[in-house]
Structure formats: C-alpha cells, structure tokens
Amino acid sequence: MGGKGKLQKWAEMKTFNNVTEPTTDEVFRKDHPLKGKWRTEIFKNDNPIVLELGCGKGEYSVGMGEQYPNKNFIGVDIKGNRIWRGAKTAFENNMTNVHFLRTQIDHIASFFAEGEVDEIWITFPDPQPKDRLERKRLTSPMFIDRYATFLKPEGIIHLKTDHEGFFQYTLDEVERCNFKLLESTFSLYNEMAENLDPKTQEILNIKTFYEKLFSAKGHSIHYCRFQLK
Q1: Which residues, 6 or more positions from 79, have their beta carbon under 8 angstroms from its beta carbon?
Q2: Mapping DSSP to helix (H, G, I), strand (E, B) and coil, where does residue 228 land?
Q3: What is the pLDDT of residues 42-85, one digit of tens each?
Q4: By the 8 A CB rule, do 75 and 60 touch?
Q5: What is the dihedral of CA 160, 163, 166, 167, to 10 degrees?
C-alpha cells in the first residue's frame, strides 16, 4: 500500500473531531446515544441532514459540504482507511458541516430518530448481483424499511450506479412499492445533464473514486431519485 498504512490512518483518524466510531455493542439491538441528537451535539445547528451511505472516501459528503454550507452531511462506511481520506480533507479545511460515521449500514436505524434525516445518497454501492444476496442490496425492502424510520416525509433518496441490473432492480422496487419516482436515467451524462438546473448538475458531477474508474472503462452511469411518501 502506497502512502500511509491502515493502522496509521486509523490512529490518525482518532485525532479528528469529525468521526464517530461506535463499537458493535453500542448499536446492536439498541439505540446509539447520538440518535435524535446530531443537530444539537455534532453540528450545533438546525440545518438539514444528508447521509451518504457507503461513502468510501467521502467524495460526495465533502463535495456537497463545500457547495451547501447550510446543510449537514454524514458519510457512512465501515472501511476506516477509506473514511480517513474524506475525514482528513474535511478536518484540515475546518468543514464543520461534514461528519463521518464508521459503522455497518445494517445498524443505520440505531443512529437516527424519526424525521431526523432529510436526504440519502447511495453512491456506487456493491450491487450484490446474486439473487441469494438480494436482501443485502442497499435499496432492498429490508434497507428501505430502515431508512423509512428516520427519513422525513417527502425526504429524497438518490442512487448513482454503473450496474444496470441493480439499477433496474431499484426502479422495479420503486414501482412495486408505489414510491414516487422523481428522476431516472440510464445514461446520466449523455441524455439528462443538459436538462438539469446548474446546481443539480454540479452535484451530479461530483465523482467518486469508483465513478471515475467505471467511467474510464466506458460504463454508463445510471441515476435516479425517489421519495418513499
């Protein structure tokens, strides 16, 4: 591994004030102490909260945090050596509206109270293409049910992926559950971007490490956003 190794990154991350790393015992079948308190104890404001699930290096959390200083962003991932990159950038730039949560997304409902979250971004998650792993897809009924416990009414879920099968699966779930599909395209940068307002274009043009990798290989980028109710 080039640069700092995992252990060095984990050690450095413990010096950052923008990372929460709970133990499994703190969240397994129980609520974390921050549930319902993110605005008062972490961000110290009443601004909207946006989650980036499976945030990797936190490109979206940091990029959106720069564009929207009046919103709060929380990047969620279990890989500490990935989160380190985004957390370090936000820490060094004194970005008080960006925080990172190192945990399994399986436990996500333990961290947020009813109506506490305004938006969710799911950026290039593992598509879990095998049928037997359907429940692990981040837009499966199991996960959607968890998001519904804390996403505010009319809150928006965004998905970007290069995996056509996973994208179609998500669209099918949106239709099956009678969710409100607000936008959908199988080729984001070819057929849709020119029709978007400039601010939305800026957001969608924030590219994660994996998006850059997939785009370089010629993969089409799929995007949708929808509301649960």
Answers
A1: 56
A2: coil
A3: 999 999 999 999 999 999 999 999 999 999 999 999 988 889 99
A4: yes
A5: 50
Q: Please state the domain extents for the chain.
A: 6-227
Model-level pTM? 0.91
Query: Which of 25, 77, 126, 172 does the annotation list as catalytic?
Result: 126
Measure Cα distances from 198 to 83, 167, 205 in Å: 29, 25, 10
Instruction: Show Cβ contacts of residue 97 under 8 Å, excluding neighbours closer than 6 positions.
Output: 43, 47, 65, 68, 69, 70, 71, 72, 73
Percentages of the chain per state (helix, strand, coil), in multiples of 5: 40, 20, 35
Q: What are residue 129's phi and psi, to 5 degrees?
A: -70, -20
Just give the CATH number of 6-227: 3.40.50.150
For residue 126, indicate whether it is catalytic: yes
The DSSP call for residue 178 is T
